[in-house]
Each structure stands twice: as C-alpha cells, then as structure tokens.
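FAQ
Q: What does a multi-component entry look like?
A: The components come first, one per line:
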Amino acid sequence: MKSLGSIRRDFAPWNDPSAKPYIQFDKVTKKFGDFTAVNNLSLTIFEREFFALLGASGCGKSTLLRMLAGFEEPTAGRILLDGQDLRGIPPYKRPVNMMFQSYALFPHMTVEKNIAFGLKQEGMPAPDIEKRVAEMLRLVKLEQFAKRKPHQLSGGQRQRVALARSVAKRPKVLLLDEPLGALDKKLREETQFELMDLQQELGLTFVVVTHDQEEAMTMADRIAIMDKGEVMQVATPAEIYEAPTSRFVAHFVGNVNMFEGKVAERAANTTRITGATGAQIVVENAADTAKGADIVFAIRPEKIKVSSRKPADAVNALEGEVYDVAYLGDMTVYHIKLDDGQMVRASALNAARVSEDPLTWNDRAWVSFRPDAGVVLTR
Amino acid sequence: MNATWSRFNISSIVLGFAFLYLPIVLLIVFSFNESKLVTVWGGFSTKWYVSLFHNQGLMDATWVTARVGVISATVATVLGTLAAITLTRYTRFKGRVLFSGMVFAPLVMPEVITGLSLLLLFVAIGLDRGFFTVTLAHITFTMCFVAVVVQSRLVSFDRSLEEAAMDLGAPPVKTFFQITLPVILPAIISGWMLAFTLSLDDLVIASFTSGPGATTLPMKIYSQVRLGVTPEINAACTILIAVVAIGVIIASIANKRREVQRQRDEQAAQRG
Amino acid sequence: MTNIAAAACSSAETAAQLPTRLAKGFVDRLVIIIPYLWLLFFFLVPFIIVFKISLSQTAISMPPYTPVLDFGDGISGLFAGFRELNFDNYTWLTQDALYFNAYVTSLIIAGISTVLTLIVGYPIAYGMARAPATIRPTLLMLVILPFWTSFLIRVYAWIGILKPEGLLNQVLLATGLISQPLVILNTYTAIFIGIVYSYLPFMVLPLYSSLEKMDYSLIEAAQDLGCPPIGAFWKITFPLSLPGVIAGCLLVFIPAVGEFVIPDLLGGSQTLMIGKTLWNEFFANRDWPVSSAVAVILLLVLTVPIMFFQQAQAKAQEQGK
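Then the predicted structure of the entire assembly, as tokens:
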C-alpha cells in the first residue's frame, strides 16, 4: 500500500464523506477598517482532531482563533460549533477555552486559584472544584506548585498552568495561540509530545495557531496553511510537504527547488517539461496540465541525488558544478549550479560514516531524480 | 459587548474632561465680560486687561513671582537631579531611608506645615523675610518634585550606555556630562517646568515665608479674591493660564518635531 | 605561598586603581551630600524647630514667642531651655473642642473627598487606558494640563460657578430643574467639589499608569473562562489596579487633610478644617506656639498615611527597575 509520507493514518474523518463536521467556518470574512484580516474563508474541523493553523504573522490565523473564542465577531459569514451558530454568543458563554500566547495567568492569584477560576464561574460546588484542580495539577505535574503565584514559576511551568486552566472546564474545543512560542527549543520539543498525549487522553478537539512549521508538522492531524486571510491548502502534514498544491505552500513548508517551464509533451503517465533555461525533465503526476501550459516543477532537496558521474539509469539527470557544500552532521547540503545557470539545492543523508563519492567546491557534479520525486504546480 | 464598553469609556472621558476644563473655560470667557458682574454676560470687552496693566501692585507682584520662579526652579532642578541620582544610583549608604523619606514626604506634606516650619527656621536663624526666603522655601519644596520626575527617567535608563562610554575610556564625571545628562535632559527640562509652575502657583508657603516688599502674584490674587470676585482677577488668571499654556504647547510641539524628525531619520536609514 | 602571591597581586591592583577610585568617591559623596544637607537643613531641622516652639510660651513681641532653645547660647543654653519646656499649648489644644473637631472634620472631609475622587477618577483613567494607543499621550497631556494652571485660579473659578447667582444656579433655574437657587458655596458640598476637582489629576495619573500596564488578554482570559465583563472587572481589573488606587488615594488624602485654600475660598467662615485653623491661629491670632502645636499634631496624624505613601513609592521604584 502506497501512502504519502511514512505514516499510515487510521484517524481520518476528513476522508469520510459521512463524518459530521464539528467546527465550520462558512464563508467567514473579518475586516478591521479597510484591512481584511480574513477573506471569505471556509474550513471544516472534525471532532477530536488536532488541527493547526499555520502562517506568517498577519495572515489572519489569530483572528480566526479569536473569532472562534468570541473576542471578535465575523463581518460576514457564519461559524458553527457542533451545529450551533456562534454568532452573538459572548466569549464567556462559549463552550470553547483558549490558551493565550502570553498565557494571561492572573498575577494576583495562585496556581490553584487560576485553575479554579473557570470552574467557579460555572458554579461548580467547592469540593468538586478542589477535586478537579487536584486532577489538573497532577495532569500537568505541578502538584507541589499549587500555592505559588505565577511570577514564582519558570516559563515552562507557567505554560503548563495556562494549559491546565484552559482544559479544567473540559471545553468542547481547546484553542491554543502559539502555545509553545515562549519556550526554548529543547523544552518546546518535549512539550509538543506532551500536548499530543494530553489531547489523546482528554479526547478534546484542539485548534492550534502557530508560525512554526515544525511544530505544526509534529503535532497536527491536519494543517491549514494561511496567507493574506485565505486558506491556501488544508491537508495532512505529509500531503502538505509531499503534495503542495501551490508555489506558496511549497515554499512555505520546508526547502524546495523550483524549475520554471512549459509542458512540452504529454504521454499516458508522464509529462515532459522544457525548463525555461532549456533543461528537459520528465515527470509523473501532472494530470491536469495541457501542452504548452506554463508550470513550475517543485522538488524537495532530499529527493535529489548528487553524484560525480552521470547515473546510468536516471530518467532526469542534469550537469553542473558544486557551488557550495555544508556539512551538517546528519546530512550534507549541496548547492549545485547547473550549466544553464539554475541553482539546485540537494541534501544527502549521511547514512554511512565514510563517503564513497566525496564532492567538494568547484567539482563537476550530476543531479538526478525520479519522475515521481516532485510535483507540477500550476499556481 | 465591546461597543457598549467603549461607549461607556468615551462618555466617561468626555464628562471627565468637561469637568476639568469647563471652570477654566468659563473663567477665561468672563475675563472678556463688559459687565462688572462676573457671572452675567454684558458684552465683549478687554477693558479689564487694560485696567490690569495699570494696577501697579499686581504688576509688581508678577515681577516678584517671575524672578522667584526662575531662580528657585533653576536651583531646585540642580538639587533635585542630584537627589534623583542619589536615589537611583546609590542604593547603599548610611541614612538612605531618611533621605528617601525627605524626598518623598514633601510631595504630600500639607503646605501649611511646610510653610510654617520654614518660617520658623528663618526666624530662628535670624533671616529677614522677603524675596530671598520665599526663594529658599520654593527651592526646598519643588526640588522633591524635580527629583521624582528625573528619577522616573533614570530608572529606565540603560546603564550599558554609561558602561560603554567608560569602556571606551571616558572617566565617570565625563561620562555623566556626555552620556547620561543628554539622555535624561528631557526629564530635567520637564522637572524645571514643573518646579517653575509650582513656584508660580504657590500661595500658602509664600504667605508664610515672604515679607514686606515680596508679595507674590498668588498672594495678591488671594487678597483680592477675599475682597470679592472681580473681572480683573479673571483677566490676570487668563494671562497666567495663557503663559503656561503657551509654554506647554511650545514644549510639546518641540517634542513632537523631534519625534517626527527621528522617525523620518529612521525611515531614511532603513531605506538605506 | 599562592595565597601570599594572590594577596600581593590584588594589593598591587588596588594601588593602581586608587587615584581614580578616590576621585570617584569624592564626586559620589558630593552628589549625595549636597541634596542631603539641603533637605536636612530646610526640611528636617524646621520640623525640630516647630516642635520646639510648640513647647514655648506665647508672647506679645516680634517674633511672638519666648524662645526656649536659643542656638546663640550654645550647649548651656540648650540645657537651660529643656528645663523650661512646657506642654501648655498641647493642653490648650485638648481643652478647646474646636481643635479636636477641626482635626476630625478634616479627616472626614478628606476621606469622603478621596472616595469621591476615586469614583470620579476611575472611569476616566479606565477610559484612557482603553483608548486607542495613538491618542493616549494626548489624553494624558489633557489630564496633566490643568495641573499646570494655577491651583488658586482653578479654585477661584468655582466661586463664579457655585455662587447663589452663579452659573450653575442660572443653568438649573433656566432649565426649570429648581425654582430656588441652591446654596452650595460656603458649604461642605462646595469643599467636596473643590477637592475632587483640584486633586482629580493626582488620582487619575497613578490609576491610569497601573491600568495601562495591565495586559488586556487577562480580561479576555477571564471572559474565556466564563466570567462576564462586570465580574471580570471586579475579579481581575480592580484587584490588579490596587497599587494605583492606593497611590492615588494617598496623593489625594494626605494633602487634603491639611488643605487651606479650598475650605477658605469655597467653604466660607463656617467650615472647620485644620489647615484653616492653623492659618488663622498664625496670621489672625499671631499665636505661633499654638499653631506650631497644631502642626505637630497634624503631622503625627498624617505620619501613618505618609509612611504608607513612602512605602508605595519605594515599591513602585523597585518594580520600575
């Protein structure tokens, strides 16, 4: 069985036509004065999904989250949660909770009081609150910090208090605004997995906003890539990486080589492309292109093989010169300047300690790749 | 939800500012009143301004006030700046608690107490009351305000600027005059202006510490107000308000222009 | 061996640094000493003199008291003086109910005025802190501006408004809200209005600075957790603005207790406030020892709030760093 990426997904309601959508953005537009933050956006999120909104700052992802939380009302369109239209429902009556980027811990309350705050608002009896708070503290491993004030905690501890506070009410949906943004790299990696475990354990729907693609790739079931208030692509991390549908997405996630060109010839399975600078490339997966159309061929660096001699069996092989080499330990990155002037980035995993075919600056080199190694993009 | 909140906010600001400014506006309006009755409009006139300038007592008092203000504000600015430096930079010396107490207490000290105590000091040391004693008294109570203004700027001052200067070979005193002083200068200037207006404004302390021949403008206004409200006082007050307002406006325009210039420079620098 | 070498090294180092360090020490000392001495001589010493004179006899002369401690006589004079100290003036203060009433009235008036100023000032400060960031400096400027205009003038302006034939009554009569002019001038109401008006900026500024610092996402977080806006105000905003509330209240309360101009101009002759009593004792009765005693007691009454104020200031300074 073939699949994109190396993971087989059993949880995939988005592929099931009968699955009931949980959160629906229906043609939502949000304007601030003249500025359109979110533009006619539609999006469906399923129950128990870990959904990531990924984009650069100012792309509208936070506005989307704040509309879901109720801090902003859409200028047009509807937002449905479990079939209920959320319009006009104030934030304090919505069954969603948010973990703030700044954590927004109440500085004058202890950890305990912070976690209990939401429970008190819904009028939960005191003994139940106590039990729930203890449970939450256990969940985030902060039992011995219950009586501390936020300023007496480390960054990682504050993050966990914020998390505990936002899940204490067992919301239908947990919204996370850059949940790991303020943590250092090592802590961030640990916490990513903790968040995933927590989501599994509580069975909640998570919507996370992030600008960090690695974070989104690691944690999310699906990712929505956003740009200028619009969704560019919604797909699993593997699809986003291996089958981007636009130049923007291909560029935004990971590194990519782009060959501008025209469709020169179409066969049953393969398409031949003439690059703008003359290179001939044969590719698969270019079904919806017509002969003569302007296209871009996008290929990831690790799908390109670099060798000092032309590989005998390669369908696509282009010659050039080693322009730059960077040895990164686990892999080596080559910048090859093809003879037609195009620069190609290729990375090779250093699977063996000793290289059979070492290359260095200014060596002649060949780059080669399989016909199914890249994608043809029309937009 | 947000809309009603902001409507509440806007109306509280508008009402608050109306409350703050209406009396002042009315005062100014009625200084141009033809009628002698300050509260009945009898047509536009500037005759009270004319008679004001023929009121020799008032003119003398204005001159005294201006001199006291300039001298005391200048000395108070120097002393207050030193006090501010002491408070922010020397966190450990004998009697620091007493010192910070003496700086902060005059801010809230009822003026009658300050005035009385200074007068008794001057009497005890045999200093004749007059221009000099009022100036000394004003230096003392305004320097604390200067200290607070300058101190708040010094607290946010980036010490690494000084360290950089010393690292490049500037001795401490030179560092202070070439680096620290220019950076905190706006705070020092606003400290001076505050000291000047406080001196201009003071009735109680001046009444205690001044003597014959050194009647300040507030003292003069006060004695006339006690006799009854006249449009002439309104005119005097309007001029005083105008002087202060012009000073504040010039200062803020200068500030704004500097800011705009800086922004332009920054943009130009970014365009490269 | 190594210890001795290290000691030698460090002492050599000190010797080299000594001249600059001495110079720095001298300047440092000067920076501290000048304002220190000034405040000692013009702020602290006068209080001692006030205390001293409050213990001396009234006399009909110039100055109108018999000096008890004469600095001219040196140490022996000082000792002679201590023997003559008497507490008659304080006894006098306790015997005449006028003084006690004046203290109590002043405290009550200052207290009520402080609460009123807080009630008037909080919405203004809140509105300013929630205003768009671009207009906040302008609003701040507008709050400070009246403070730059004469206090006496601003109080004077209210006379024209509050008089029986003043503007307020004219407006109210014209609109038919009242049929008889209200008597406001020369009442306690006028004093409240005067204090609230004059001290409003002192309340608004510290409130504003504590409200403006507050992270708005805290309010959003409270609402997100199910707390309606009014609740979020009392549970989050107000407790977090408490430092500003305390600073503002002290800045209003302490000077208001000893206020002279406002009760004198707006309160009329009936009103009894201690600042005015002291003034009259001094200027009208020319009784310096008694007015000194009044000042000493007033200072004692205000010691606790002044200490609170200083602590709040020191704390704010710490947080500023």
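Q: Is there any commentary attached?
A: Sometimes. For this entry: Chain B touches chain A through one residue (CB under 8 Å).
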